[in-house]
């Protein structure tokens, strides 16, 4: 499973991001392009500890389920998400695009720091740096496919 900080992976996501337009239509779901960017950025901010997301008591934190979702099973379309990962006001496309790239840079820097303390995931609980790298990669890839980029 690729990790978002593997060489060339983040650059690939940013290059594909250039194919997203404010009027791009999703293949499924209700996200607008700017709402999806807000959502993906919020997930990275949660990992970095910059966005507090209330923990959910869930079977997803159980070891085999957590590993299955992060490393094996595809993300389901239209899955529920924490309200903190959704915009509370209409986001602006160019601002969200820039915020995604800036947050990705901070994520890559954190991955290089062996002393960085990754925040727990709201549903999965404590994750290793490898878990976070795979989960974020899988999450962004899921939404890039949603918008055909």
List the helices and strands and how they pair.
Blueprint: H1 9-17, H2 33-48, H3 63-71, H4 93-112, H5 129-146
Helix pairs in contact: 2-4, 2-5
Keywords:
single chain; 149 residues; mainly alpha; 48% helix; 5 helices
The tally of helices reads 5
Write the element-wise H/E pattern from the N-terminal end onward. HHHHH
Helix content: 40-55%
Largest sheet: none
Q: Could you give the count of β-strands?
A: 0
Distance between the termini: 19 Å
Strand content: under 5%
The count of domains is: 1
Shape: globular
Uncertain segments are none
Q: Radius of gyration, rounded?
A: 15 Å
Average pLDDT metric: 91
Summarize the structure in words.
The protein has helices spanning 9-17, 33-48, 63-71, 93-112, 129-146. The chain is an all-alpha fold. Helix 2 packs parallel to helix 4 and helix 2 (33-48) runs antiparallel to helix 5 (129-146).
